[in-house]
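Chapter summary example.
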Amino acid sequence: MTATAPQQKITYTSTNVDMEGFHRAFDAALAAVRKAAGASHPLFINGVPVEVTDREPITDTSPIDTSFVLGRFACAGPEHVDQAVKAARAAQKGWARLSWQERIRILRRAATLIRDRKFELAAVMSLEVGKNRLEAMGDAEESADLIDYYCQQVEDHDGFQRDMNNLTPIERNREVLRPYGVFTCIAPFNFPLALSTGMSAAALMTGNAVIYKPAEDTPWTGLKLYEVYRDAGVPPGIFNFISGHGREIGNPLWQHPGVDGVVFTGSKEIGMKIFHGLSKDWVKPCLMELGGKNSTIVMDTADLDAAAEGVMKSTFGLQNQKCSATSRVYVHSSVKAAFLEKLLAKTRAITMGDVTQRDVWFGPVINERAVQRWEKAVSQAAREGAVLHGGTRLRGEAFARGHFVAPTIAELPLSSSLFFEELFVPFLAIGEVKDLSQAIEETNKAEYGLTSGLFSKKQDEIDRFFDEIEAGVCYVNKRSGATTGAWPGAQPFCGWKGSGSSGKGGCGPWYVQQFMREQSRTVIAELTPP
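The structure predicted for these 530 residues follows.
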């Protein structure tokens, strides 16, 4: 199922491409995906479809219209996790023995297949997540770029092996990085292809096997990734697709003694549970990105049009369901009124509804639990401060069958817990500050440290922001998205504090090595007599 269209790269904020051609191809892919919806899908373990008859399947519906069934997916149990781990362990050594060049060839083929299928993949994600067309296509494009970028790292380091110094004439010393073995890969719903691909591809290209569990809300996208790897030539057992409920297979996925490491993107609560419970007999790698509560600081010298646009896009893109989304703003008291006027005007202009349609930008939240979190935040904001915009469920025919809530902005006292709790819903907390010192202090109070943004024209403020802010991804004066828009090879995506685990993030130059461990090799050889 592939749509023909100009091969132009579409990122999350593209404007300089043939949009008419893009929309024609997207419409064709969307029609094909809708026609294919509703099928039943098994697990895939060791390259073989595995039916599950003793558990109710996961019914995957669209958050745009919950009456639309996208598919029914087999619901794995602990026994299937055990089966997948055993298959992965049996296959992994053969995969690791392949030359790194051959593994890279297969993974680059996967990147090519993603680009060939990008309209189909984007259409699936638009329906399954509620992503608008640019967001969905950006997710697909980033997935392919992540593979290529990580492959380039392996190539640039000659497969992560090199000669070392020889202390004597008869020794030969060499250093290599070797795979750990089997990684569990647990993915989130919000970037169901890009994050799944980035985590799994890094593990695969370095010689590991993978047990992959997509989010319960996005199994169809996860299955499409399995098909990409299969069709690219990843051998059976090396990438195993396990759909299911986290409450049933979450713990078995990372507690299984045959699992050598975990790569996870999701909530801090679950991530810390995995981190503390993973290592028993020895320390196992635990690579995690755990969300954020990202701030944007707007100073008195800021370009307020740019600041308002950057905040609006970062706050309400994908309905704030991004780890990098702006969820709090600290604005200088002298420009607060002017900034809010511009921000509210831009927010009122947002087009809302069915984001599979070409002119709709803002869609639903992922499920009813997200609606309830949003309602709770709105209620608290009304008690503690003032709701400036939104605060209501969206009503009307376009919203009747989905999880739609209004983009919401509230002005709150700096003491409100809404400045510090990750909500993952379209809710923005605005606080007033007197200077940069106070803004940085308030920003750094949060337990998270993923992204942060600043709007200022003063170089000394920019320098101080970079030096003192406790966040791994920092932007200054970014109109296209105050705290969002990281791309492979451009902005490493590394969470500090409660937002990460290793200090070396995806999209960056130090990510791939974390899926390997170092081995020193010394060979002693007799000297040839003269």
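To summarize the output: Confidence is low (pLDDT under 50) at residues 1-6.
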